Amino acid sequence: MTCGQEDREEDIAFAGVRGQRQLLRDGALTAVELLDLCLVRIDRYDPKLRAFRTVFADSARQEARAADAALATDDDRPLLGVPVAVKDSMAVAGHASSLGTASAEPVAEEDSEVVRRLRAAGAVIVGTTTLPELALWPFTESATFGVTHNPWDLARTPGGSSGGSAAAVAAGLVAAATGSDGGGSIRIPAASCGLVGLKPTRDLVSLAPYREHWHGLSVAGVLTRDVADTVTLLNVLQDAPLEVSPPGRLRIAWSLKTAAPSPVSPDVKAALRRVVGRLHDLGHELVHADPDLSGVAESFLVHYATGVADDLAALADPSATETRTRAVAALGRRLRGRPFARATRSRERVTERLARPPAGADVLLTPTLPTAAAPVEALTGLRTLALAGRRAAFTSPWNLTGLPALSIPAGFTDEGLPLAVQLVGPAASESLLLSLAAQLEPASPARPAL
User: Fold this and answer.
1) Pick the catalytic residue: 97, 103, 185, 396?
2) How many other C-beta atoms can be found within 10 angstroms of the C-beta atom of residue 94?
3) In a 10 Å sphere around its CB, with 0-12 CB exposed, 13-18 middle and 19+ buried, how is residue 348 labelled?
4) Between the CA of residue 93 and those of 81, 176, 330, what are the distances in Å?
5) Measured between alpha carbons, how far is 199 from 234 in angstroms, rounded to an integer?
6) Residue 299 designated active-site
7) Which domains does the chain have, with CATH numbers?
8) Does residue 180 have an active-site annotation?
9) Euclidean distance between CA atoms 85 and 78, whole angstroms
10) Would residue 262 show up in a list of annotated catalytic residues for this protein?
11) Cβ count within 10 A of residue 441
12) Which is the catalytic residue, given 103, 161, 162, 346?
């Protein structure tokens, strides 16, 4: 491959959803050529990343051919011909999702609603991405599928539980990928990999065929390279149109308070200060104000652990899981009954108290993670649960309350690791959060040197 060919491949791979869709509209390449480029990059880079659990090369090529035929008729669907990956916890017809385990799960007869909508919008489903067992952890490592690595530094985790999706998008293997977020599982990988990751308001995006997950903690969403691509994907996955427009002058509260004790690194504090300064320069009013997070950690743990117990029991073979997974499920079983009822009452109080940002603000600004991406295999054994809680200390409150929260890039450490901040708003404020994020977004997202 010549230097010019390599540069063109990189430009296409990192063009994002809208960029790739425009190239297809313009006839600069075909959907089959775009898919082949993605498959070549998966073959080249995924052996060291381990972002994909399964690659659907044959069926994806059929979908790409169908997309090319549709493009010839001026079909203008928003994702027509664009390769997208799906987290391996979401049903894809004809595929047995692993949920990150060794359990022999049944083959899905139908697509999940998220995948159905992606296909209806013209997306080419390339494959499924890795996750930790039962989407439990803020890293992506499992006994069955090994360790997934961060494209910015292979010695670091891409976060979790949507870590395979984040690694695939950050490395330019696909333009976008689906994720789910029950305690930070979209936002933590987005922060670790320099991506945009939105946890939507509860019930905005359908979880069908499931009615709910983890007692309402979990939501579905996507990981993308920029705000506009997130808007494009979310407008496919749900029915209330999101728009990015000048947000006007906002009152923004910023805070370093966590739901559980978790030291915040100097790099993260400096990144937050830079964003505070940038928002001030944009004309917004900034105020330091902490949300009242009392009761959050305890209530979250009960809902999380009991949800994991439900998931483990639903597996075809619950024994085909790691010891730490079964330990969390055992904890969850003990927390049913009165402890769960108390946690539910506490959740109702927390949700009412945190319905609006503190100090009369429109938006709350926090770090997404207390540090940059952690080293791989840093959170192991039965202590994983306690250590993982620290990684989700900024993200988990908004799963408990069901409020929207958006992670966006906020520069890099001196070692070149991505940093991020989180924007939180009232229910159904996705357009506001995305509009504010767009003001902070660089003209061209950075690319890792693979």
Assistant:
1) 185
2) 12
3) exposed
4) 19, 20, 32
5) 11
6) no
7) 3-440 (3.90.1300.10)
8) no
9) 16
10) no
11) 16
12) 161
